[in-house]
Write a structure and sequence with these properties.
By secondary structure, the chain is α/β, with parallel strands linked by helices. Helices cover 22% and strands 25% of the residues.
């Protein structure tokens, strides 16, 4: 099979290998023919060495969808020919976190594409418990966005315990998770969504107002009559973190799950306790939440910027930080 592989960290070390052996499925495993893979910051971190990849040589790719090619013994939840997405978190199902349905926090877990080979290949082998059938009507670009981009946003919103008509600010609303946080906050939680972005198309995804970062404070103060936001979703990291705190009302909540712009800030402790602010860290989401999302897919949409071939993976990953980027980036294997 054809796969994207690196032997040591560095984008320059990515290469496409044509004759990688197709994995053999064992008991409880499923072989998937990959049709579409989402390109995410986690893939950049893995390839560049910010996150340790196992095994080496390594095939990256945490977010993908495809068709079941074969199943191992005792697999009953899917069969050959099923259209599926793959829950990206590895979990043992027995630790204290798994027993309360928080598989993304498994004590002995990992991430597909990080701690095992991922989906930037024609075929990938995964545990059957990670495989979810999807409706035949779901297009591949949306399908390949559900396990990471949509699920991360959905879990973040669930963690904020939203109430009806809360003001929710989504920072980076045109990004991979931002476009889903915007949609889900409006459609599922009936929130009033303000998108922080330079992309006006975010309004079509459920934001009643889109503001640029430089004007966010004044605009949000104006539209809330000085009360400010109930919740801010900020996946970007250090560059926007302190600004996001300023957008919150007393007793407000800042939800964070990304470090694209840096991972360290100096916190204003007085402001946090004086205004009783909550900072909530979230990661991924649970299998239950993924099931919820898959049942609601008809309400969701994805904006695609570019689709690349496997041979163009290096360019695809580099394009994550392109100032021209306007939507999601995918690796398209439907024509391989």
């Amino acid at each position: 099979m054809k796969a994207v592989i690196f032997d040591k960290p560095g984008l320059e070390n990515l290469r496409v290998v044509e004759d990688v052996p197709i994995p053999e499925v064992k008991e409880g495993e499923v072989l998937i023919k990959v049709m579409m893979a989402g390109v995410n910051p986690i893939d950049y971190f893995v390839v560049t060495g910010s996150r340790e990849a196992k095994p080496l040589p390594h095939i990256p790719g945490a977010e993908f969808a495809g068709i079941v090619e074969s199943v191992g013994p005792n697999v009953t939840n899917v069969q050959r020919g099923n259209k599926v997405v793959v829950y990206p978190r590895l979990f043992d199902g027995t630790c204290d976190m798994c027993l309360v349905f928080k598989e993304m926090l498994c004590r002995n877990g990992g991430v597909i594409g990080v701690t095992c080979n991922g989906g930037f290949s024609e075929y990938v082998k995964v545990p059957s418990d990670n495989v979810f059938k999807i409706d035949e009507g779901m297009d591949w670009e949306l399908a390949a966005s559900m396990p990471v981009s949509a699920l991360t946003a959905y879990h973040a919103l669930n963690s904020a315990s939203l109430s009806l008509n809360n003001y929710v600010v989504v920072v980076g609303a045109s990004g991979n998770t931002g476009m889903f946080a915007t949609q889900l906050a409006r459609l599922v939680f009936s929130a009033k969504v303000i998108g922080v972005s330079r992309k006006k198309w975010v309004e079509r995804f459920g934001a009643f107002m889109v503001v640029e970062k430089e004007h966010a404070l004044e605009k949000i103060k104006e539209v809330t009559n000085g009360k400010m936001a109930d919740v801010v979703i900020d996946p970007l990291g250090a560059e926007t973190f302190l600004n996001s705190l300023e957008l919150l009302k007393p007793n407000g909540k800042l939800v964070t799950y990304g470090v694209l712009t840096g991972s360290t800030v100096e916190l204003p402790i007085f402001k946090i306790y004086n205004q009783q602010l909550s900072i909530i860290g979230t990661t991924g989401g649970s299998r239950r939440e993924l099931t919820d999302l898959l049942n609601q897919y008809k309400w969701l949409q994805v904006k695609t910027w570019k689709k690349f071939k496997l041979e163009e993976t290096k360019t695809a990953i580099e394009s994550l930080s392109s100032p021209e980027r306007d939507g999601r980036i995918f690796l398209d294997l439907t024509a391989q």
